[in-house]
Amino acid sequence: MNEGKLMAEGSDWGEAMKQGIRILSKGLQLWLILAITILASCAPKPVHIGFVGPLTGSSAPIGLGGRNGFLMALGDGPGAAPGKVPGMTLVVKDDHNEPETCLETLKELKAEGCSIVILGTTSRAATLALPWAMKNDMFVISPTISTTVPGIDNSLFMRINVRSSSYGSTLARLAMDRYGKGRVAVLSDMVNADYVQSIVEGFTTAYTGLGGIISFSGPFNSRTGRPTDGLQQTLLDNQSDGLLIVAASTEVALIAKELEKGGTKIQLFLPPWPLTLDLLENGGTAVEGAVAVSAADLSFRTQAGKKFKADYMQEYGETPSFTAMLGYETSQVLRSALSTGAGTQPQQLREKILQIGAFDGIQGPIRFAPDGNAERDIFLYKIKNGTFESID
Amino acid sequence: MSKATTLTRYLAGIVALFAVLLLSGSVFSLWTLNATIQKSFTELNSLSALLVSSRLEQFFSDVRGSISHASRLVEKPELYPRAQLATYLADMVHEHVFLDTIEIVGPDGRVLAVSPSDSGRIGIPRTGEKVYEAVKASGDFHWSDSYISLQDNQPAITCGFHAGSHTILANLNLSWFGEFAASILAGSDQNVEIRLTDSNGVLIHHPELDRVQRRERQADFTHIREGVDAAHPLLIAEGDRSYLVAARKLREPAWYILVLYPRDTFNASLRWSLLSLLGLSLVSMIVGIMSWQFRLHRITRAFTAISIEAKRISRGDYGQLESFGEGFYKFERIGDSLNTMVSAIGVRESMLRDREQGFRDILESIELAAITLDNDGIIKYVNPYLERLIDLPSREIVGKSFKAYLCGGSDHCPFELILGGDSPSTMERSSIRIQGGEERIIDWSIVRNLDASGMLSGATGIGHDTTEMVRARESVEKSLHEKDILLREVHHRVKNNLQVITSLLSLQQADTENQMVLGALVDASSRIQSIALVHELLYDSDDFGDLDFRKYAESLTGHLPATQLEPPLRYKFNFDQLRLSLTEAVPCGLILNEAITNSIKHAFQPVPDSAPCIEISGSVREDGMTRIEIRDNGCGMGESIDAAGGSHLGLTIMGGLADQLHGSIRFYNDGGAVVELVFRSSIGTL
Fold it and tell me: Measuring CA to CA, which residue among B174, B176, B195, B170 is closest to residue B247?
């Protein structure tokens, strides 16, 4: 045996161990670098999408419905819309139906890296936020805004809803032609002034054009009071045979109940704003017979609509409102465009949506005009037995 | 070196195994710790959930009691006048802080009374409203879905009770629940959360009120709903966080109590345990490895010392080992054993050396040739005797093939049998050629040589120079051969001379008519013939010293004159290979001749009834005396016959011959005449 080698065995072993640890350490470092590189190259870039709407207060049903439909479409559940956008994160914010709050939430979203926003709020709340978003390179698509917001050129804006003036004119034709009401009174909650004015103007223009008379116009602000005191007498004095209420569901239910309490039977005409579930739940018999218009098919006649209703009820335990349907369709459109790899650059995304052109919505096809406004049907309803019954 | 490497790997393997076991133990401990903590957590939080749910159920039970009490206001108008209903309701609202409003709806579906007082609501119809219709439909208590009260933006619920024709509707605030949840969690981990959801997962209570106000749903609610009252902890994801959840469902309304603990907080606690344990394991492992390395170094040094000592011992240095064992008790014991072994080896080697020297001295001094060959037959050693014999110095012999010294070519080497491995030892004779060409005959005694491993390494032969002895023997043998020839010739000539005498006597027999003379001549001729027969047999034999007496007897009876007996005379021989010397054979032959001749002449007159027979026997008795007996079955001899006297010449001759043999002869009758000669022979049986 080699004596020298044998004597060196102890130190050899220690050297071998140190060498082994050095190799192991280098291997581990290499492995970590490789793993990080692979993960970094494979990880999808996150897509931040914001949702803003009134989630509290009397307009909450609008925001909550839109949010729920939006989340269900983008989720992973059975009601998810087709197409998958990896790395998508959702940020939901409450604007309390206040323009200033809405603006602040958009700024927050921008700061958080959101360049795509679904604005599920009222037209009033969007008056400050929407122009700001256009100036700050944010793509906005809305399931609820139906008015023309002054000061924007629609370059980065698209709407799923129908323009509010169209609702007004449709209600006017319905009142005059179908129900033969020649003297219709108008109650409008100025808490959503732009929307209200757009509806009322559309209605007034069309209605008077058809020979109708606005028997009474009663603007009010639900935050400061309700127009219930003396309402019956006013309607009676003005010989009104119809009443257009442009307000949220809570206000409509209260006004209708006040009229029922007083024994006043008058045909109610309603725009989409109050057509939420709580109108039926809280309005009761007082809103029975009311006629309404909406861009949403609230009787779920299509196969896709039936499936959506079933999925939504399974998810949330309630019947979806029109904002839920429009919110869902908004997500469908967005998801379809993003899943094609259009990217999150606002202008490119808008162009991609316009390029796709037609989408299969849950209540029929949705087409977008070059100005970003959806071209779609308006559905007519009558509340009967606590449900929205189609009268198309 | 390979052994040392194997040892290192072996010990490194033990260290690795130790490390793996330690790490495995740590992982298993962590797994157990994690499972135990999670189980404990689940049980604790389930207990909290049970506590909260009990309080809520108590609350709803109180509500039912209160509403039931309110029903009496309308069921017993005699006790509670309608005009005072508002007052009674106001008292109830005042008494029960959870009551926001309470209404009594009349049979027509319109509000009959309300508290707090609101004259505007009196008469408001509630028909068609979801809650009102549901209460009526139930005919009993009914709980609405939760909602956010527009008055205070807080979660609320409406409870209805259908009492006969009237309906009582109460709006309940749940603001107290937040305080209650906070009291439950007071003093506990701040990370624990209590949440309350309705049957659809919509949050009714959450530490962040705005999430309740925004009617957010509990994340992963489906998973929670399916895992209510589960024994294992529920793990849910909420955004980028995950929670361990204990869930419990209320009986009525079907709400869910959730007690949540952030998984990352839990993991952080666990991580500390993990880090502590891993750190401890790592330190233990490093200490263990260092300890092993130190010990390994010591062990290696101990083995190095063994190697050094082994080399020293191999050099023949059998001194005692010093400071062996590196402090290891076992190694020190090995050192003691080695010391004992080395001492024993030293003593034995000394003995072996002495013995070897003794053998070497013997080999060097004996007058015998000694030679050692390797396996190839090459000479490795020759002793001085062989040197002298070959007449060459050792250095000129060693290294050469042994066959070179063999005479008659190299076909047969006396060492071949041993070197071929066929036998451990042998004795061989060979002739070797020494200096000057002379041949020497060597008788070799050869043994094999084995190396330390027991393998054949050569052979050693001890040779005796038998050249002179062999040559002397050859000379003696030659001389003996010449004497044999001479002796044979002498016997031949004696026999021939006796034959001549016999022939002369036969001629004499023809010239005489005197029967006595004729008889004497015949007898003399017969006696001479018996002597000649002795010489004839001697010169025909290989050995002139003695002869086979049976053969002699058989030849003698063949030379006797034929008888005219009828039936013919028969001879019978019973001998035990009796051999007699010349000096014994002649008298014995004469006695035999006389006895047979007498029997032929006298025994068978008249002829016996049985066939005439003469039986001749010869043997050596147990006392060493030779006994020869001649027996016939004739008429026997007359009385007063003995060997010493009497008138019979033949008997006299036989007596004299017996004396010559220093023996005794006896004549007697035993079914015939019997002559028995007993003497001590100098040869005996073959």
Answer: B195
Nearest residue in chain A measured CA to CA from B297: A10
Residues of A in contact with B8 (CB under 8 A): 9, 12-13
Residue of A nearest to B239 (CA): A89
| Cβ within 8 Å of residue B179, ≥6 positions away | none
Interface test with A, best of B6, B149, B208, B215 (most A CBs within 10 A): B215
User: What is the DSSP annotation of A255-317?
Assistant: HHHHHHHTT---EEEE-STT-SHHHHHHHGGGGTT-EEEESS-TT--SHHHHHHHHHHHHHHS
Q: Are A65 and A320 in contact (CB under 8 A)?
A: yes
Q: Answer whether A13 sits within 8 Å of B127, measured CB to CB.
A: no
Query: Which of A56, A258, A288 has the CB atom closest to B148's CB atom?
Result: A56
Classify B304 as helix, strand or coil: helix
Which residues in B lie closer than 8 A to residue A288 (C-beta atoms)? 128
Q: Minimal CA–CA distance to B403: which of B420, B419, B415, B385? A: B415
Q: Which two tokens stand for residue B110?
A: 């319109």
Cβ neighbours of residue B660 under 8 Å, at least 6 residues apart? Answer: B587
User: How many A×B Cβ pairs under 8 Å?
Assistant: 114
- Residues 253-312 on B with a CB inside 8 Å of A are 289, 293, 296-298, 300-301, 303-304, 307-308, 311
Q: Is B199 near chain A, with CB under 8 Å?
A: yes
Q: H or E stretch including B141?
A: strand B141-143
Q: Which ranges in B445-581 belong to alpha helices (H)?
A: 467-511, 515-540, 549-559
A52-56, A121-125, A181-185, B630-634: segment of lowest average pLDDT: A121-125
Question: Rounded CA gap, B380 and B633, in Å?
Answer: 81
Dist CA A142 CA A278 (whole Å) = 22
Q: Answer yes or no: do A261 and B213 touch at CB < 8 A.
A: no
Residue of B153, B171, B210, B146 lying closest to A57 (CA atoms) = B153
Percent of chain B predicted with pLDDT > 90: 14
Task: Please tell me the distance from the alpha carbon of residue B143 to that of residue B250, in angstroms, as a whole number.
Answer: 13
Distance CA A111, CA A390 (A): 44
For B181-240, the pLDDT digits (tens) are: 888 887 776 788 899 998 888 899 998 888 888 888 888 888 888 888 776 778 888 877
CA diameter of chain B:
212
- Taking an 8 Å cut-off on Cβ atoms, the answer to whether B129 and A2 are in contact is no
CA torsion sign for B327, B330, B336, B338 is: negative
Among B22, B30, B21, which residue's Cα sits nearest to residue B274?
A: B30
Label the pairing between strands A88-94 and A47-53: parallel
Residues 6+ apart with CB under 8 A from B465: B368, B369, B389, B440, B441, B442
| First-last CA distance in chain A | 106
Contacts of B129 in chain A (CB under 8 A): 281-284
Contact A281 B303 (CB under 8 A): no
- Among B30-39, B57-66, B178-187, B221-230, whose mean pLDDT is lowest? B30-39
Residues in B closer than 8 angstroms to A92, CB to CB, are 214, 216
Q: For residues A96 and A14, what is the distance between their CA atoms, to the nearest angstrom?
A: 71
Which residues touch B641 (CB under 8 Å, ≥6 apart)? B648, B651, B667
Residue B61, number of CB atoms within 10 A of its CB: 11
**A-contacting residues in B 95-154 (Cβ below 8 Å):** 109-110, 120, 123-133, 145, 148, 150, 153
Whether the pTM exceeds 0.90: the reply is no
Average pLDDT over every residue of B42-71: 81
Give the 3-state secondary structure of residue B83. Answer: helix
Assembly ipTM: 0.78
